[in-house]
Design brief:
Number of domains of chain A: 2
CATH superfamily of the largest domain in chain A: Jelly Rolls
Structural class of chain A: alpha+beta
Pfam families (chains A, B): cNMP_binding
Oligomer: homodimer
Strand content of chain A: 15-25%
Order of helices and strands of chain A: HHEEEEEEHEEHHHHHH
CATH class of the largest domain in chain A: Mainly Beta
Largest interface: A-B, 30 and 30 residues
Distance between the termini of chain A: 45 Å
Largest sheet of chain A: 4 strands, antiparallel
Protein name (chains A, B): Crp/Fnr family transcriptional regulator
Shape of chain A: globular
Number of helices of chain A: 9
Helix content of chain A: 40-55%
Number of strands of chain A: 8
CATH architecture of the largest domain in chain A: Sandwich
Chain lengths: 192, 192
DNA sequence: ATTTCTTCTTGACATATGTCAAGATTTCTC
DNA sequence: GAGAAATCTTGACATATGTCAAGAAGAAAT
């Protein structure tokens, strides 16, 4: 149940069994079925989720009721609405399971407790944010001012997992283009 | 010279005079004139810069030689290419002064030293990344799948400083639109 | 297996934004 | 303060992408 989390921590910060065990005890396991929600807009996001198995995605709803996909997350990654988590303001995000999931949840108090009392944990979180920041930066690089085809090519190169496990219309939304455009681009790319 | 940096740290992590002094001794002050570079693409980024005064921006160069603006940064903020900084790979970014600047530089070894030896510093950096991550997330929210006018309105609301201190054509690039389009949008918005 | 829901494709057409080119402003520099 | 850069505006036109609508294909549910 905790394999990937332990691996994720060990990869970034060498830790003793004791420290790892202490961490473990603060997480709450949870299963989520496809289409179920981890967070719904309007609620305050009170937890971060580490994904042991499955896939989720987060999105906002625009004026016309359409989805705008913000993030995809798979095994070994974290997902949350950090803005709401830290500010305690209502979230504008929905986080929904794309597949049946096994999650490890960490709520606000537990997160604070670990930060204060387990130095390794703070280091782990720092490195996590560091990587997450760089990843977002690269996402912007791979999106901004590019044509729809360039955006999609970039995604295929950098994030093959997404292309393989996620419905096309969600990928389109993630790239900021319409499903129709994406369909046409793929057809065109295939014929070359 | 160190006022804003001290303020930035104190705001996030209560620290003693001693800790603050220890931090200070690891930074190197540097002045930069308008149009001078802090980093040029092809070089490895070996430092992070805290801005005591002035403004800078970072950008990549695309196939046709055009600029694609990634970030603007003003007094009280940090700028760097974290990807290159951490991976030690060549940077694809240029970081250029928009105005005459006073910077405090921290190179890789000094950063590592502080992380290891000053717990407050690690906490400071963690919170910094946390905020930076949330800010990037919001940038994506304010860009993705929006019309040019919506993107610009969002910028005006959220980042008035940028609109006031940065040339329009760089703002256009930052939003992923052309200067001509931005000019037309502004005209149209003014007449309402 | 049949039905139902979800996802993907395709066509015809509309529109936002880009491109190119020229001139008008504004801002810097000496 | 004059000249040179840099920046911003405007027009005419091209084009990528969006919109709407319908049907096909695929996956999930009973």
């Amino acid at each position: 149940m905790f394999e990937l989390l332990i691996k994720s921590i060990q990869d970034k910060v060498p830790s003793t069994e004791e420290e790892l065990h202490l961490c473990k005890t603060h997480f709450t396991p949870k299963r989520l079925r496809r289409k179920q929600f981890l967070l719904q807009e309007g609620d305050v996001c009170n937890r971060m989720a580490f994904i042991e198995k499955g896939a989720l995605y987060s999105y906002t709803t625009d004026a016309k009721g359409g989805q705008r996909v913000m993030q995809f997350a798979f095994e070994g990654f974290w997902i949350s609405d950090l803005y709401s988590f830290f500010t305690r303001e209502e979230s504008k995000l929905n986080i929904e399971a794309l597949e049946d999931c096994e999650l490890l949840l960490l709520d606000h108090e537990q997160h604070d407790y670990l930060l204060k009392n387990v130095r390794q944990y703070e280091t782990y979180i720092r490195i996590l944010y560091q990587n997450a920041y760089v990843a977002l930066q690269q996402r912007i690089e791979g999106t901004l001012g590019l044509t729809a085809e360039e955006k999609y090519s970039h995604l295929v190169e950098q994030y093959a997992t997404i292309v393989n496990r996620v419905p096309q219309h969600l990928i389109a939304s993630y790239l900021g283009i319409t499903p129709e455009t994406l369909s046409r681009i793929r057809k065109q790319m295939a014929s070359r």
